[in-house]
Amino acid sequence: MHFSLCRSLALTFTFTLVSIAAVRAQCDGWQQRVKYDMRVELDTRNHRFTGSTTLVYTNNSPDTLREVFFHLYFNAFRPGSEMDVRSRTIADPDSRVGGRIAELTKSEMGELVVERMAQGGRAVGLEPMGTVLKALLAQPLLPGKSTTLTYDFKGQVPVQIRRSGRDNAEGVAYSMAQWYPKLAEYDERGWHAYPYVGREYYGVWGDFDLSITLDSAYTVAATGVLQNPEQIGHGYPTGKKGVKRPARDKLTWRFSAKNVHDFAWAADRDFLHTIDQVPGGPVLHFFRKSDPALKETWDQLPGYMIKSFQFMNEHFGTYPWPQYSFVQGGDGGMEYPMLTLITGKRRLGSLVGVSVHESVHSWYYGVLASNEGRFAWMDEGFTEYASSEVMQELFGGDDDPHASSIEGYRGLVASGKQEAPSIHADHFKTNAAYGATAYSFGELLVHQLGAVVGEKTIDAGMLRYFDACKFKHPAPIDFERVMEKQSGLELDWYFDEWINTTRQLDYGIREVLQVGTELRITLENNGDQLMPVDLEIEMRDGAHENYHIPLSLMRGSKPAGSEAETFSTLSAWQWTDPTYTLNLPGTLANVASITLDPHHRLADMDLSNDRVELPEGAGGMVKP
Question: Does the reported pTM lie above 0.90?
């Protein structure tokens, strides 16, 4: 082949690769798609259910698929399951689970079985694998094509242990989460058919049309919008006066949910159902037991939640669905599309706190929907970050709302249990390490990034991230690229080091010298983690001088005026240099103190060398 032609093709190929990477980095990769048309009937006498599904699966990937995978989550609640074994053998078992699964009797266990499946009238081979089902397609699903699968399933609702089940500790009859055969997600890394051993989820974007038939005495709360309220009642507005619900032993509830990746519901004979409205936003539904002890706190909850949704819409992106339900149930608090299950016997602050956290998940678990197995910190941590700001808006206070994330991270490091955040959520050695990493580290990662790019930039970047990546399953590279574009800085060093390692940050003040008419301040990096540095000099007359020292790898610096106080930007600290020296006009006699990280934004592991206080009349040299 002629050299010039080879070179032209090579350049074209290189440009194509770069273009594909750029597209992926903007959250514009392909997404699989599914449509469920599902019918299910629950027998409340024996807690068993049967169902049938017509599923349309669209393969938007470049790959030909010869099998698909389903999650059968209820099978985790059986003695000997992977969840059972993990819960009994991990160093620090979750007290909600422990050995409870191993003690379940036959009538208390969970069960989910697909009885038969067909593709275009041809039988599909089924290989059950505990909480996973492998389905061997009768004909391959080609790129860009759709196929229809029909199947019947049956199951038994387990005694409530973790998230889902029947008869929870507060007496709620049914918390129906992870209850149906759920199609596993397929992305650029292939199938994600994770067994259910305790952590959270990753699902295919799609539409659900669901009919639920059960005893008419039960009130049902669910993902989606009820399509037949005039036949149901139970507190749902019919839009017509004088409409009475038909007197029947059973009712069929029809719900529709568009552009979601899961479907949950709950049911109880004693639910009290009330409704409120976010101005210009979704209808809020509240379902609680009609226990008089719950009335005072639950009556106040709607006002707080309206303000929470308004704050989130303004600062983090617009909630896209028409409704949201707060439902008493489950074993603490757990988020699902358009719905959360929360335990309800709480003081007001606790009830508002769990409701804020779980509803804020709608932005990160619900709309952005990162893979919670691989990137739990992108869901839990980002939710914690936004929730902390919502709670401060609701209850006031001038303290840093994210300070606890730094303390939680320091506690994790001090415990000796720290593991790299890039580890799959199910594979952490301890629940403590998983929890502190998903929650504290995740919140810290965003909060600390503000010290790199500036406060106004991080605020604008969070909105941009939501708008650019909603309904696209973002990965860390997507958040990184959004923040690079928003800030104009290079940030790969930050994400690479903090996500993929357990390196520790420890900057300090080595010494302060008087050299002629100048102060010579020498800083040092005693750790193996990298960050830019903020420095504050407090003068004896009360004045403050603030400086920002960028990291050379940033290829720029955050804008002045983005912090609580303005600052002067100094030359960059070369990342290879163990020390950094700055010379400033002034005398030791006029300086009261010198402080690193004056806004307490960094997860510095040794604070003892971050501040120097100078006694009156100091001269010569001062060390921490």
Answer: yes
